[in-house]
Amino acid sequence: MKNLFFVSFVLLMFFPALSQGIKLKNALVVGQFDKPEDRFSVEINLTEMLSMQGVKAFPSLNMLKQGADQSLLASDTITQAVLLKGYDTYLVVNVKGYDRKFKKSLVLPVLTEALNRVSLYHIFKDEVTSVTFEFTFYRSNQPIYTEILKCGNVSNREDVVKKLRKKMPKLIEKWKQ
Questions:
Q1: Which residues are registered as beta bridge partners of 132?
Q2: Contacts of residue 3, Cβ cutoff 8 Å, sequence gap at least 6
Q3: Poorest-confidence range of 8-22, 27-41, 52-66?
Q4: Region 116-138: what's the mean pLDDT?
Q5: What radius of gyration, in Å, describes the C-alpha atoms of the chain?
Q6: pLDDT (tens digit per residue) in 31-60
Q7: 95-105: per-residue pLDDT in tens?
Q8: Is the pLDDT of residue 12 over 80?
Q9: Which residues 6+ apart lie within 8 Å of 14 measured at CB?
């Protein structure tokens, strides 16, 4: 019991956003997907949903040339350009897996490490019925918050996007607090 209390205290001390809302006001949306159509779908849909909820959002697709390495988003030049556009938060989105049992990551990498990671999963894979997305927020290259979203009862790629669009408004409201 003492260990659980100590771990909770340490997490709350190092990740203050876990104990309170992250007060999301703006975000550069970064989709980590191998397939360009998956990245486009997720970034554009999330940007649109964030904007509809009053959060200033911008897709990373508009910051990089087509086919450019995503790790460039953490470079000083692009970071300064992002700040000049009024964005201080990066929202990195990926698929954590195709099971309903996934939990939030407890150890989060810094932004440069996260952008260098390769995505293992696509938005949809044949013969799966559940897709779990992970959303990780960064400010000043440091992780501040992570959240997972499970989309169940899906049978194709369009179902995944529909479920994502249906569940996101409630999640975005939580992030704004």
A1: 97, 150
A2: none
A3: 8-22
A4: 89
A5: 16
A6: 999 888 999 999 999 999 999 999 999 999
A7: 998 877 778 88
A8: no
A9: none
The distance of Cα 109 from the centroid of its chain, to the nearest Å, equals 13
Q: Which two tokens stand for residue 149?
A: 């979203």
CA atoms within 13 A on the CB side of 168: 22
Three-class SS of the chain: CHHHHHHHHHHHHHCHHHCCCCCCCEEEEEECCCCHHHHHHHHHHHHHHHHHCCCEEEEHHHCCCCCCCHHHHHCHHHHHHHHHCCCCEEEEEEEEECCCCCCCCCCCCCHHHHHHCCCCCCCCCCCCCEEEEEEEEEECCEEEEEEEEEEECCCCHHHHHHHHHHHHHHHHHHHHC
